[in-house]
Amino acid sequence: MIAVSTVNVNGLRAAAKKGFGPWLAATEADVVCLQEVRAEPAQLPAEIREPEGWHTLWAPAAAKGRAGVALLSREAPLAQRIGFGSAEFDGSGRYAEIELPGLTVASLYLPSGEVGTERQEEKERFMAEFLTHLTELHAKAAANGREVLVCGDWNIAHREADLKNWRANQKSSGFLPEERAWLSRVFDEAGYVDVVRRLHPETEGPYTWWSYRGKAFDNDSGWRIDHQIATPQLAERAVSARVERAASYDARWSDHAPVTAVYDL
Predict the structure, then answer these.
(1) Mean pLDDT across the stretch 74-90?
(2) pLDDT score for 175
(3) Cα(163)–Cα(210) distance, rounded to whole angstroms?
């Protein structure tokens, strides 16, 4: 059995002051994928930068204080990689992967976008390149008898069931028709499976992000944008998946919640 957690920490230095450390110490996960770290390793407290019992891979963004992903694994990786061969995005702190026996695990922070701005154009460029990478990664893994799990903040809600106020957000980045169609291509063309949706096909949500504004968290008015997306055979081996939603607003250490899944390998 292997348990994998993914969470956008919304600034790891801030999260470390609010409860990330105790969560990490208590987690059942064998691999933890982090997004939006927003710090160089040297800027992190030692107990966060080099937590006892974990092997770490940090992939900060070249732009200070932005993006940044990381992977923490209890087992030493056989290999590790930052970026996916993109001239534009490999230094942006948005993708890293590690190889474990029979399994590649990646941490992804897909750009959030903003309709009508260059940020949305950047998101679209990233998606175009990344779909090619996903397709090639799946093919390579299949040829070598391996599985792939891409975890992270994908910044796209795929279905109406993936966000509370879907009617009001049909023209919002993260729920645009073209973004949802792209995620469908990840499933239908690149051959991946949404692990949480496979295990919870009829559930509203479970949401993984709630705005800090208003009463979004208290009203559970959220979005499901943090995903574990796997090759089909690995998805079939997923025995459980849950969102670790905080018990109360003041107990949160990020505006996202960890998504944890267990796989029977």
Answers:
(1) 98
(2) 98
(3) 10
Residues with a catalytic annotation lie at: 153
Give start and end residues of each alpha helix (H) in 1-117: 12-18, 20-26, 46-49
Q: What is the pLDDT of residues 197-238, one digit of tens each?
A: 999 999 999 999 999 988 999 999 999 999 999 999 999 999
Running DSSP on this structure, what letter comes out for residue 61? -
pTM of the model: 0.97
Q: Which CATH superfamily is domain 2-263 in?
A: Endonuclease/exonuclease/phosphatase (3.60.10.10)
Is residue 163 helix, strand or coil? strand
Which strands form 79-82's sheet, in the order they lie side by side? 79-82, 95-100, 103-109, 147-153, 226-230, 193-194
- DSSP assignment of 101-161 equals TTEEEEEEE-----TTSHHHHHHHHHHHHHHHHHHHHHHHHHHTT-EEEEEEE-----SGG
Q: Which residue in this structure is represented by tokens 């230095």?
A: 13
The DSSP symbol for 209 reads B
Do β-strands 259-263 and 2-8 pair in parallel, antiparallel, or remain unpaired?
Answer: antiparallel
> How far, in Å, are 118, 121, 183, 200 from residue 115 at the CA level?
8, 9, 18, 30
pLDDT for 202: 92
3-state secondary structure of 170: coil
The residue with tokens 């920490």 is 9
Bridge partners of residue 98, in order along the sequence: 80, 105
Inter-CA distances, 250 with 34, 52, 217, 218, Å: 21, 27, 10, 11
Q: Tell me phi and psi for residue 152, to 5 degrees.
A: 150, -170
Dist CA 151 CA 172 (whole Å): 23
According to the model, what pLDDT value does residue 47 have? 95
Q: How confident is the model at residue 184 (pLDDT cuts 50, 70, 90)?
A: very high
